[in-house]
Amino acid sequence: IVEKDRFQTLGDLRKQWTESGVETSRATVYRRVQEMGYRCRIPQVKPLLNQKQRQKRLTWATEKQHWTVAQWSKREMPKCLKSSVKYPQSVMVWGAMSAAVNAASYQEILEHFMLPSAEKPYGDEDFIFQHDLAPAHSAKTTGKWFTDHGITVLNWPANSPDLNPIENLWDIVKRKLRDARPNTLDELKAAIEASWASITPQQCHRLIASMPRRTEAVISAEGFPTKY
Predict the structure, then answer these.
(1) What interhelical angle do 185-197 and 166-180 show, nearest 10?
(2) Residue 56, Cβ neighbours under 10 Å: how many?
(3) Which residues does the UniProt record annotate as the domain Tc1-like transposase DDE (predicted)?
(4) Which terminus of the chain is more exposed, N or C, with fewer CB under 10 A?
């Protein structure tokens, strides 16, 4: 029964045993499963990847396999986080490490927020910008915007949050927001800014330093989702 479906719970197993005439407790089911060499685990939820997407992830990871931490450090990794207190109150957040927007508004965000934020750490130096495959990001006009501004964009495989370390930063922000429990829109904005400001450079450096391990994990998993 276990081999047929490894995602069954102890309750599922007990129900099947009961239906087959074996009356037992959940604790007994647990002990028997342990005796058979199985361990109870909560499965991680990962994006569903088709064969083409897995191959693209594998190709991407192989190409970036020998990138150094210094190379990864020159990569802008933005992401939008939409958080809400009580509907309909909500706030859209722009953050970058180092949205439901259309191509035109996304380019305005890049122009007025990304460029000034990138100028502080990089100045006139070249850097590589990374975003995912949202329609506003992959639009032809957005591609032209990057070309016109002389900015290199990192190619990105679909359904790959495990390759984007800024996801870990947003997780930190979300956890802090749960502790803050804001009740108004102003409180929400203040809590987001405070939680983002509390992220240390050391945390960012550790996440960037994890990129070589992430690419190795994708290669080892042959393109399937990893633990990250």
Answers:
(1) 130
(2) 19
(3) 95-189
(4) N
The answer to whether the beta carbons of residues 136 and 106 sit under 8 Å apart is yes
Mean pLDDT: which of 52-61, 70-79, 85-94, 183-192 is highest?
52-61
As a whole number of angstroms, the distance between CA 156 and CA 176 comes to: 29
Q: What count of other Cβ atoms lies within 10 Å of the Cβ of residue 194?
A: 13
Helix (H) or strand (E) holding 28: helix 26-35
Helix (H, G, I), strand (E, B) or coil at 136: helix
The type of residue at 86 is K
Alpha-carbon radius of gyration of the chain: 22
pLDDT at 17 over 90: no
- 94 vs 116: CA distance, rounded Å: 13
Task: Decide: 76 and 128 in contact? Cβ < 8 Å.
Answer: yes
Query: Which pTM does this prediction carry?
Result: 0.53
Phi-psi region of 23 (alpha: psi -120 to 50; beta: other; left: phi over 0): beta
d(CA 69, CA 55): 24
Q: Encoding tokens for residue 191? A: 């809590």
Contact present, 211 and 202 (Cβ < 8 Å): no
Please report how the helices 201-209 and 211-220 are oriented relative to each other, as an axis angle in degrees rounded to 10. Answer: 30
Cβ-contact 95, 82 below 8 angstroms = no
Please, what is the average pLDDT of the chain?
Answer: 81
Check residue 212 and give its pLDDT.
Answer: 92
Kindly tell me the burial class for residue 73, based on how many C-beta atoms sit within 10 Å of its own C-beta (0-12, 13-18, 19 or more).
Answer: middle
Number of C-beta neighbours around residue 11 at 10 A: 10
